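Our example pasted here:


***
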Amino acid sequence: MQPFGNAEQLHRSALISDREVLLAAKTGDVEVICRYLQSAQNINRQILWNGKTISPLHLASMVGNISIVEIFIRQQVDVDIRSGSGISPLHFASEAGHQKIVELLVKAQADVNIKDEIYCSAPLWVAAQNGHLSVVKELIKSFANVDSQEQKNGCSPLYSSSQNGHLHVVNALIKAKADVNLERCSGASPLYIACENGYYQIVKSLINARANTNLQESVNGSTPLYIAAQNGHHQIVDLLINSEVEVNLQTKRGFSPLCIAAQKGHPQVVSSLIKAEADVNQQEIRGGSPLLIASQNGHHKVVALLINAKADVNLQQVTGESPLFLAAQNGHLQVTLELIKAQSDVNLQSVDGCTPIFIASRQGHLRIVDSLIDAQADVNLQEVRGFSSLYVSAENGHLEVVNSLIKAQADVNLQENDGYTPLYVASQNGHDQVVKSLIRANANVNLLEKANGSSPLHIATQGGHLGIVNTLIRAGAEINIQEKVEGSTPLYIASQNGYHQIVDSLLKARADIKIQTYNGFSPLHVASKNNHQRVVDLLLKAQSEVNKEMVLDEQGQRCGVHELAFSAASSDQTLSQKLHSALTESGFVESRAKLQMAAADVLQDVLRKRLNNDDIFVVGSFSEGWGNNLQCLDGRTDIQSDIDVMTLLSGRLHHPLGFCQCDDATIVKQAYENGHINAPGFASNPALPSYGTALRPALDQVDAARLCCYPTIAPLQQQRISKSHIPKFVLSSLQDDVSSNYFSPCHVVNAASPGQGGYELRVSTSFLEKRMLRSLTTLQGQLFVTLKYLVKKVICHTDGFNLQGVKPYHVKTITFRMVGETPPEQWKPDNLVILVRRALQMLHDSAESNCKPDNAHGRIMEHFFLSDTALYLKGVNRDDSEQILSRILGTLKAVIEELPQLLVQFIGSLTPIDESGRFHFHPFQILPNLTPRSTVKSDPLKYEEIYDVVRECLQRLTKDDCSLQSQENLALLISRLPDCAFTPREALKALACIKFGYQKTAERIVSHCRGHSVSRGIAWSAEKPPAAANFDVVWQYLRSHDSTWKFCFQFDERPVFSFLPVTLAALFPLQLMNEPGCFFINFEALMLALNLELRTIGDFQSKIAEVTQREDADDLELLTAAMFASDIHESKLIFNRLVQQSSQIPATIQAVLKRRWNELTELSNNQK
C-alpha cells in the first residue's frame, strides 16, 4: 500500500521522483542530486525505500558514495538525521566500513556518540562489531566514547569485537583505554566471551591489559576459565592458569572448571587443571565429583587421569550413586573396568539401595554385569523395595543377564516387599525364555504375591501369555489355585478375558470349571456375560451337565447359556453400530481428537509467546481432545463448554509432608490428606469463569502453585499395574510425568474438600488426566463423549432429569477406570452400547457403595490418580447428601433402563462433518488473554505479533489525524501483515483509503479481492491417520494459508469508524454481550460488507444467499447479509439462523435490523 498524499505533492515530485533521487544517491549520479537539491523544499526529507524510510544521505553513506556525501554536506544537510528506524548516516557508514565517509561526517560535526533507536548503539559499537579497524580508529580519534554500551544486551565495543574475533580492533580499543572488565547485562566480560569462542590472541591481549580473570558472569556464575574448560580450549586454559587464575571457583550449581571439563570429556584441559592443583574431589551442589561426572558420561581417558590424581573412587552424590554405579548404569564398560581396578566398592548402595550390579542388570549391560560378578559383587543385595538384580533383569527380559546371575548363585525365589518373585514378574511381562531359565534353576512356580495371593500362572493368564502358561503347567504350577481377594482361578481369568487358547490349555490340564469366585461367578458365567462365544463352547464341551447351568439375563428371566450369550446382543450390537457410525461421521475419531490436541498446543504456544510466560497452560476438554463439543468434533467449542487456562504462580512452592524429598532444612512441609494440603488463608475459588457465546467460548482461568512432587499415584502402584489394561506406553508416560514433575508439574489450586474452605488447597492431577485422555482410542473416546452427553444433557440438564451433583469430572474418572479394567479385545464397535451400560453401572455401584448415613459430605467415588482420596458430589449441602445420592441411584437406574432411547436421541443431536472434514481454528478469536502488547518491529512479523498489529491498525483508524505522516505510518504498519493475514491486510488498506479520501483506490482494492477465498479451516479427511495430526501440521496450516481473519479484541470503549456508513459503523466491530469491553471482527465479513457497500459485486443477492446457506457462517457474517438483503424470504432465513445460533445482538444493531425488516416488509406488501 502506497503512502497517501495530495495532488499538489504528487505534481511536485514528478520532476524528480523519490525513486530517482535514491537511485542517484546509490549510484553516484551527481547531476540528479544537484537538480533535486535545487528543487526540493526540504532537503532533509525522508523517502520510502524497500520498506524503510531513509534520506538520500543515509543511502549514500550506506553504499559509500563519497562525492554524493560531500555534496550533501556542502548543502548543509542535517548530518545527524535519523531514518524511520532511528539510524544516523554515521551508523550506516560505520557498519559498512566506509572510513572516508566517516571522516567526512565527523568533520561536518556529526555526533560520534549518537545512538540508534533500535538497540541504542553508537557508531563505534557498530564498527567494532563488524571489525572495521580504520573506522574504529577514526572514531576513537574523534573522541568517541569507547565504553558506550548498546541497550539490548549491554555489549561494549570491546565486548563485541572480542566476541567476533577482531583482534586488531580489540588492540586499538585497549590502547584507547577501553574498560577491559566492562560486563554486558548477563555479567559476561570481554575476556569471558573471547575464552568462550577460543580467540587465543585476544585472550592474551586482554590478560596483558589486566583483565580480571576471575570475573563471574551473573546468569550461571561461570568464569573465563570455566567457559574455556567447557569448550575444550586447552591453550587458553593454560594461558589463564599462568595468569594465576583461581582454578576452583564454582558456578551457582557448584560446577568447577574441572567438573565441566570432565563432563565434556576434554583430557588435555583436565590434565592442565590437575597440574594446577585443582581439587579433584570438589563436588557440585548435587554431590557430583569430577570423577563421578566423567564416569557417568563414559570419558575413560579423563577417568584414568583423575584416578591417577588420587580422586576418591567411592565419593557418592547426594542420592548415593557412586562413579561405578553411574558407569554401570550407562553401559560404559571401559570406565567400569578402570574403577574396579582402582578398588571401587562394588557393593556400595545408593540412597534407595541400588548397587552397580543391580542397575547394570536392569539396563541389560551383560559385559558390565559379568565384570562386577568377577569382582565379587553381591548378586542378592536388594534395594529398598526389595528388588534384586535378578528380579529387575527378569522384569525387563534380559535373558543373558538372567543366566549370568543364576550361574553366580543368585536366589531365584527372592521376593520383593510385595511378594513378587523374578518368575512372577517375568510371567507378567511375557518373557518366555526368561521363565524357562528360572524354572530350570528351580524357581518355585507356586510362590504367591502378598496383596492378592496370585501366582505366576494367574498373572501369565491375565496377560494372555499362552506360551508361558503352557510352560508353567508343564513345570507343575497349581491349576486350580484361587487368588485371595476375589477368588479367581486361572481358568476364570482366561474365561473372563476371552483367551480361548489358554482356556483350552487349562482344561486339558484338568482345570475345574465349577470353582466360583467369592461372589458366586463361574468361568462359564463370566464368559457368557462378556459374550466370549468360543470360550463358552470350550467350557460347555468340558461340562457334561451344561444344561443344568442356568444364569439370569438382564430382565431377570432364567435362560440357558447359549441363549444368554446371544439374547440381548443382537439389539445392542445394532445400536452399537449405529452409535459408532454416527459418532465417527461427526468427527469423534482418534485422528481428529489428535488434531484438536495439536490445535490446543498451538493456542498455548501463541499465548505463551505473546505473554512471554512458559508457565501458562491450556488444559481441560479443549486441550484433552475429547468432549469439548458434544455435537461434532470440528474444532469449535460448545457454548456450554469452555477453554481452561491455568497459570503457575512464580515463587510459590508447596511441600507435602510424607512425600517431599527436598533436603532444604528451611522449608515448611504441609500436612497432606485426602488429596489436599493444609494451607490456611486461601479462599476456595479454583476458577474464574466467564460465559460463552457462538463467537467466543467461555473461559475458566485458574491460578495454581507448584507442588514439589506428586503424592502416591494409584494407577502406577505395582498392585494396580499388574491388573491394569492401560497400555504400557501410557503408564510409562505417566511415570515420566510423575518422575520429572517439570513439564507436567503437580500443583495445587484454591479449592478445598467439603467443610474445609479457607484451610486447604486441592492437589490437581490435570496433567495426568490430560495424558490419559490424549491416549484414548477412537472407541474409548466415543465412550467418554457418550457418557459426558448422558451426564450433562440427560442427568443434569433442565430438559432431562434436572438432577445436580454428578459432574463431568466423574465421567473422566469412570472412563479411566473403564480403560484400566476392560481388556483390549472388548473395545469393538459392536460392544459400544455394552461398554456404555457397564460404565453407567460402574458409576451406579460407586454411588451405591457410598450411600451411607455417615457420608455427610457427599462422597461418591475414589479419585482415580490420588490414593485414599475421595471425589464428591458437586454443589450439595451437607444435610442433603444422602438424599441426593439416593436420587442419583434412582436416576442412574432409569438411565440404564432407558439407554437405547437416550442413545437414539444422542445420535439425533450429532452433526455430521462435511466431506472436506473441515476443522475450525482461529487462535485470535478464542485467545484466552486479550491484554494488548506493544507492537514490535521484528522483520518478518511473527505470527503471535499479528494480533497486536491488527489491533493497533484499528485504533489508528479511529483517530482524527489524517496527516501525511499518519498516512505513511499506517501504511507501513498494515504492510507488515503477512499473507496468512491477507484478508485483514487488504480490508485494513481499504478502510485506510476510505478514511483518507481515496475512494477509487479503496474500490480497486476491494474489487481485486473479490475472487479471493479465505481458508475456513483445516481440511482433514476421515482417512488421515492419528500420527498425521501434530503441532507442526497446525502451525504449517496457519502460516501457509489465509487463515487469520477472525479476531476478538479488548478495548476500553468501542472503536468507531466514523468514516464508514452508519450501518457498517454499527456492525464493525461487534460487541460481545458475554464479555464487557470485548469486540469481535470478522475481516471476511468486513470485506463482504465493503464489496456490497461500494457496489463492486454485480449479483450481490447470490453472494448473500451463499452466506446464508453456509453452515459455518458466524453472527457477523449473517448480520452483514441481513443488512444488505433485499428479499423478505432471505431475511427470514437469516433471522432464523441467528435464533438457532443463540446469537446475542446489541440493541443498536437490533434497531438497525428492525428498520431494515420494516423496509423489506413494506416493499413486499407493495409488490403484492
Summary: Residues 828 and 1078 are 46 Å apart (CA to CA). The mean pLDDT is 89.
